[in-house]
Amino acid sequence: MEMAVKYRGREFSSRELAEVRDIIAGHPNKSRWYLSREICRQWNWRQPNGTLKDMVCRGFLLHLARLGQIELPPVRHETPYRLAHRKRPEIIEVDSTPIENGLAGIKPVELRQVSRTPLQKLYNSLIQQYHYLGYTRPVGEHLEYLAFSGGRVIACSGWCSAPRHIGSRDRYIGWNKEQRQQRLHQLIINTRFLIMQWVRVPHLASYLLGLNVRRIGRDWREVYHHDILWLETFVDPERGFTGTCYKAANWRYLGMTTGRGKADQTNKPNRSLKYVFGYPLRKDFREALCDGISIPQR
């Protein structure tokens, strides 16, 4: 009996694998791009905002091909590996005159959502130049923000779809595997948070986190047409970070990561262990994530 195949936390049955083969056989002259979209259409495999899960499906097809389960048509357009050859963001210079003041002295602070706007390039440039992780294009749903004071950029923050599994977070929420698979899209992670190095304003970081928390749910719904209920982030103690600003902004310490990546097969740490912090956007977040109660629009 043919075994099911597991990909990205989901098991695909022998019947589903047979359907994939039938779709490929029924369209012998079509491209891989066409086949992945056709599978998504037939399975109604969509993101929460209704768009086809085309990239996920293409990864699934490549996985099946490596396992010898299917044979894909030849690649029609050879392209370099995107991540290895992607151009770095264009460097954009900004005013780096030191800002040393109290929080009251730099208000009002304006937080702008810059994804898919002309300011996106500025965000990319600043993260590339000044964040220790540099800029990488987010995978999945994502939003980026710039904070301005007196017309000058003082900070950046980036958010994207949450990782599939974080042990301390999943235990804190209390959901099971099926609930996590169904509602993971309602979680997002703060992947970048940068105060410009020439800005020295006490309590600014926690203040900016508060501004972001109060508006990100509305922004996410406007762009991606679904609600989010939970925010999370990693803090790397090996770099001397302790999460002070997250604690000051009332984020909850949940525990440590295991130090293993999503593709780990050894069950041994292969990267630095990080603190995990979380922030619920609703008091009844557990009921909403575990029981699937309706979420009123605000």
Top CATH class of the largest domain: Alpha Beta
Q: Please work out how many helical segments DSSP would assign.
A: 11
Report, as a whole number of angstroms, the end-to-end distance: 50 Å
Q: Count up the domains.
A: 2
Number of strands: 11
Radius of gyration: 22 Å
User: Given the C-alpha coordinates, what overall shape results?
Assistant: globular
Please summarize the sheet with the most strands.
Answer: 7 strands, mixed
In CATH, the homologous superfamily of the largest domain goes by the name Gcn5-related N-acetyltransferase (GNAT)
Order of strands across the widest beta sheet? 4-5-6-7-9-11-10
Helix content range of the residues, please? 25-40%
Named CATH architecture of the largest domain: 3-Layer(aba) Sandwich
Mean pLDDT: 89
CATH topology of the largest domain: Aminopeptidase
Structural class: alpha+beta
Give me the strand/helix succession.
Answer: EEHHHHEHEHEEHHEEHEHEEH
Parts with pLDDT < 50 across at least 5 consecutive residues: 80-85, 294-298
Give the percentage of residues in beta strands: 15-25%
